[in-house]
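Hi L.,

As promised, glycerol kinase:
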Amino acid sequence: MADPKTAAVGPLVGAVVQGTNSTRFLVFSSKTAELLSHHKVELTQEFPKEGWVEQDPKEILQSVYECIARTCEKLDEMNVDISNIKAVGISNQRETTVIWDKLTGEPLYNAVVWLDLRTQTTVEDLSKKIPGNSNFVKSKTGLPLSTYFSAVKLRWMLDNVRHVQKAVEEGRALFGTIDSWLIWSLTGGVNGGVHCTDVTNASRTMLFNIHSLEWDKELCDFFEIPMDLLPNVFSSSEIYGLIKTGALEGVPISGCLGDQCAALVGQMCFQEGQAKNTYGTGCFLLCNTGRKCVFSEHGLLTTIAYKLGKEKPAYYALEGSVAIAGAVIRWLRDNLGIIETSGDIEKLAKEVGTSYGCYFVPAFSGLYAPYWEPSARGILCGLTQFTNKCHIAFAALEAVCFQTREILEAMNRDCGIPLRHLQVDGGMTNNKVLMQLQADILHIPVIKPFMPETTALGAAMAAGAAEGVSVWSLEPQALSVLRMERFEPQIQATESEIRYATWKKAVMKSMGWVTSQSPESGDPSIFSSMPLGFFIVSSMVMLIGARYISGVP
């Protein structure tokens, strides 16, 4: 962060980063890409039933207002004039689905989060309607039919929530992903708020044709979604509207990208074949495939990477999605209590430097790429009487790295040219043990920017470059070069292969846990959806005793 005494003046750009666990607002210099100030607010998640994950849209919106206000206060303390903030970009958790009343501005239901599994029965029913020899959903959207994406979440609300049904019948309902909810609210809400999204977020709904770049009637008919609920779709870089209240009243919102696409832009992966991996709640590896759609034969998604201007072309990406990365650390903290803060996991893992044969598959929401296996559930295996919380902490970090290797290998097979290094970003990259583990398990160098806020940077770049703002040049010669930290592999390739092969055995054992019942039923039968913590804690108590859980030798 900039020294207050030398803080850059001139054009500044703000970025809202609305994630699953927190909201942040960050302000950058458009000339140097230097981060001046920021503020963060943690969010609550609700788990009403096993497999369900919800958030309060009003809490999310309030967190955005709070982050903007507090960041502006900090800038004022630094003697930086907030009138220098010329634009704001938005980056958001994708797929999370909101539906609200356009007359009152009130959400009609909690936001159904991308991790939510309640729609498994909906997915199974819809799958039966797709001809076996013609998966038109995937060919139009680049996505497999899965609980992950917005269309099935919206379909569930329309089927199960009377408030939503009534509002739709009366023409009062609006649908959107988190970006749409925020832009509509910030630009006036019931008083003329702009109902829109960008192509990157639209491409994650399963209702958007990624070839024609428009909502697709055949898809909407298939999911039985009324098209008048849907937001207007714009590019990722243009003025959508002006902020109508607060410290930044009158400032244009002119950038919008789903969080992983924002990170791709922030890492400056503008060339075909460039890739980045973001370590957040989940883990997301994106590879720029240029102006052509590349369809995966190995379980990856085809998605829109960015469209940086009304008249600019859309660029595409292959994506490998892992549901649980940073979320496993939060789970160890909040559910098992073996760490007090997220940062403690690095200390525990460093103490032992090995999992001692313990393997953790955190399939809390099934397995995403490359398996797309909703029946999987989390397992911890290879436990002995010697196992303690340090080994479990190490195994949790290894699990993130093994999952990344799986999607990297799938991407290498699809692209035909193996990546020679991996660019990384996200909050977890501050964990040096994790970064070294990742280099060891991939057996290629891992490269991390010293300024890890690349998601925010990407949103700021898109906002600042928009026509009518034009304070940030995206020309290659004008882009600031990020300073990088490099992690080289430190183990033999044979050791990496042995550990990876054992992990794959554990993955196979995690599959098929949910067989007879759907999480939609809310039935806590031990054969369908017994909480994962029950299995792990019970196993630990039986195998190693409570004193080993606490790390007592």
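Confidence is low (pLDDT under 50) at residues 4-8, 518-553.

Thanks again for sending the construct details.

K.
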